[in-house]
Amino acid sequence: MRIRVGHLYPDYLNIYADRGNIAVLRRRAAERGHELVVEAIGIGDPLRAGEHDLLYVGGGQDREQAAIAGDLAGRREQIAEAVDHGAALLAVCGGYQLLGRGYRGRDGSFMPGAGLFPHETVAGETRMIGDVLLECELDPGHARPLAGFENHAGRTLLDQGAQPLGRVVHGFGNDGESGFEGCRVGRALGTYLHGPLLPRNPWLADWLLAQALAHATGNAPLELSPLSDALEAEAFRVAAGRARARGGRR
Ligand code: GLN
Prior knowledge:
It is built from 6 helices and 12 strands. The protein is α/β, with parallel strands linked by helices. It has one domain: Class I glutamine amidotransferase (GATase) domain (Rossmann fold), CATH 3.40.50.880. It starts with a strand and ends with a helix. Glutamine binds next to helix 2, helix 4 and strand 8.
């Protein structure tokens, strides 16, 4: 199968080499005989709902976010329609913030977002930095750990009843208080974890690939054949260990 990926603003939102997530998806798709076709979508480029099985938005600092915020907010309908029709999506940090209703910076300015995720973000006075460990339950009854790294000033407040990506075991998460990290709407996931996220959490890479394949085929998501993930498991072990060494919830 061909898995069509739309990578939004790769030239602006790529802090901590977030595009490494795409490399992981490409490799893990190829190992199962699928081809990942990645289209870069920059400011002003068309985004047609239905043309991508997975959309990807990386992270960036406020300056980079400000450069693309207006363009991204203008894509509200296409993004909502794509996710509504079962496209998968992964948004990291700055991209995650701008897929909510918007981001209020330290100077009081407001960047409007694309409104996919039911949340709003406000910049705080301190940065929330460090290794994070989460527990996620994307498939009911199947809890899995997710390890990553966060570095954000924004506090993201989920609306009442919104579904987080996971529960914080160690780290700050969305706002340092709620105990939640990230957000989920259908097959769309947003998270603060980068660095990048997928190399040390291969189960999440496969979850996203399975959802993207389901969109491409029109079938329900299937379990992908297992790969030998010894290096990935070691990377996870080290990252999770660092998060645990942080102690407490933050
Ligand atoms: N605006 C962001 C913040 O809260 C950007 C963070 C990021 O992508 N690293 O700091």
